[in-house]
Amino acid sequence: MIIGITGGTGSGKSTLLHLIAEKGGLVLDCDAIYHHLLQTDASLLNAIESTFPGTVADGALDRKKLGAIVFNDEAALLELNRITHHAVKQEILRHLEDRPSLVAIDAIGLFEGELDVLCDVTVAITAPVEMRIRRIMSRDGISEEYAKNRIAAQHDDVWFTSKCDHILENNGTREEFTGKCIAFLGNLGIIKEKTKGE
């Protein structure tokens, strides 16, 4: 089974991902894959450099230069996403060649990157904005303003929930959300929930 997991930054996707990993599932973090490809895939860097000249030097991406171009130009950002989503999808497909029995694809761009078509089920993780702000400030050591800007640059919860098969709301304690994740995986037959007395 391939589960596509998406949602905005700081929503709590890692809780579900950890549970799947504990059950022996293969967790594919698309953000980590992208950053790994930037270090190892010359064809990706070449594609970025040919489209955005001057953004790659000595075999390394100049993120600030690239950011200055794409974040002020929607067409440029769409073109960059087209390049990067294609590279990430090819890497995901490579990981799926061995046909693992349980896979989680963690991707904020699950639908833009057309990874949803690989999934048996998709789930959106949502959380109140204030909770997300606090979480990513603590996790990434960033200011409240920067955290708000990062969230504002992404799709809102309605966008994610309108596209996914399932929704998990992370609006309580960590224990409560873990319980929701366990119930979700139980419904999919991945986790056998303990009954009273076990």
SS field, number of helical segments: 9
| Element string (H = helix, E = strand) | EHEHHEEHHEEHHHEH
- Compute the average pLDDT: 91
Strands, count: 7
Terminal Cα separation, in Å? 27 Å
Biggest sheet details: 5 strands, parallel
Helix content: 40-55%
Please compute the radius of gyration using only Cα atoms.
Answer: 18 Å
The structure class reads alpha/beta
Strand order of the largest sheet: 2-5-1-6-7
Which parts are unreliable, with pLDDT below 50 for 5 consecutive residues or more?
Answer: none
**Proportion of β residues?**
5-15%
Principal-axis shape equals globular
Describe the structure.
This protein has helices at 13-22, 30-40, 42-51, 63-70, 74-96, 129-140, 144-152, 157-163, 174-187, and strands spanning 2-6, 26-29, 56-57, 60-61, 103-106, 121-126, 166-169. By secondary structure, the chain is α/β, with parallel strands linked by helices. The strands form two sheets. Strands 2-5-1-6-7 form a five-stranded parallel β-sheet, with helices on both faces. Strands 3-4 form a two-stranded antiparallel sheet. The two termini are 27 Å apart.
Summarize the structure.
With 198 residues, the protein is of the alpha/beta class. Helices cover 53% and strands 14% of the residues.
